[in-house]
Amino acid sequence: MRTNSVAVVTGASQGIGRATALRLARDFSSVVLAARNEEELKSTAAAVSAIGAESLVCALDLREPQSAETLVKNTLDRFGRIDALLNIAGAVPQINLFEMTDAQWEDGIALKLHGARRLTVLAWNALKASKGSVVLISGSAALDPKPGFAAVAAVNAAIIALAKAFAEQGIKDGVQVNSVIPGAVMTGRRQSFFEKWAPAHNLTVEEAVKKFPEEVGIARFGRPEEIADLMAFLVSPQAKWMTGASVRMDGGEIKGI
Q1: Is 196 found in the same domain as 127?
Q2: Is 123 inside a domain boundary?
Q3: One-character DSSP codes across 90-101
């Protein structure tokens, strides 16, 4: 049942972000869509409208400090409130630990970590007023770091810690904060990776897509819509007593307790 409420979704142009925006359009009256690619955001906005929710497109780069302020201002100017903030934007380079430059490290941190931190801080008063919810997206590399995924692991681990710190303040302020740790999800970005990786390893794309889940010990890749359903639950009334949690959804990829 759709409520008169406003959700802000970053990274809403594709992948998990787009799937989450579409899923939340079933529950929220308005969905604010943020990402860098305006044309892709307009496509998401059209799909949100088709579901029956109002949308606002904010094409901006959250690596830039002023972008978070602009996003919060535009949202409040248009809708007057923020009930849920879903920090999904941010792709971190998958480059070997010993080959990464400082600029590559900083770029990954700037969007996924600092972008989410800055936006959550600036949206906090509105979330406090609405007794709202925040979700930050991490990733399974945080729990199983490898040399080729060092920056991914470091940023994702920091996201989990950041969410817990926000959650502690949220207990006092009435703001619910959790993080989600997805495993290997088949997004457009992952498909593009396999299209480049497969020929270099004498595999077809289909063979590579089949081989990867077998190597990490899962039955299949996840779907963006599955993560979106989890996001929707975490910002729903049914999950209101759930805060400070790091929720893993990875098909059994992480074997540790």
Answers
A1: no
A2: yes
A3: -------TTT--
Q: What is the pLDDT of residues 137-164, one digit of tens each?
A: 999 989 998 888 888 899 999 999 999 9
What are the DSSP calls for 193-204, one per residue? Answer: HHHHHHHHTT--
| Half-sphere exposure at residue 45, Cβ-oriented, CA atoms within 13 angstroms | 16
What domain range is 162 assigned to? 3-184+223-249
133: enclosing H helix or E strand = strand 133-137
Cα distance between residue 74 and residue 237, in whole Å: 26
Note the pTM of the prediction, 2 decimals.
0.94
Alpha-carbon span 186 to 209, nearest angstrom: 9
- Burial class (CB within 10 angstroms; exposed 0-12, middle 13-18, buried 19+) of 229: middle
Q: Are 69 and 125 in contact (CB under 8 A)?
A: no
3-state secondary structure of 206: helix
